[in-house]
# Entry
Amino acid sequence: MCEKKESTHSHGHDHEHKHTKAVLNRLSRASGHLESVKRMIENGEDCGEVLIQLSAVTGALNSAGKIILKDHMEHCIAHAVETGDNETIDKFLKTINYLVK
# Structure
């Protein structure tokens, strides 16, 4: 079962992190792949294999980001819409612009 951790964000509501374990697993996977890439480069291994490992790092990071984004939308943004918190909605739109640039 996913770990639940409550915290109060700067935008003033309690937030349950339902997917903490899944995010941490993906970040650990990315970290492991990145360490593998470093060793491969140090050992002068095949560039194609290095690129495959880098792709795995990118995939794991993107997967973690998608989980965090979904959680943020389901909780923080839904709460902001319900309460008319335009500051949080504007901040979210800026974040999306940063991610999609």
About this structure: Residues 1-8 have pLDDT under 50 and may be disordered. Residues 47-83 form the longest helix (37 residues). The chain is about 75% helix and 5% strand. The chain has one domain: 17-100.
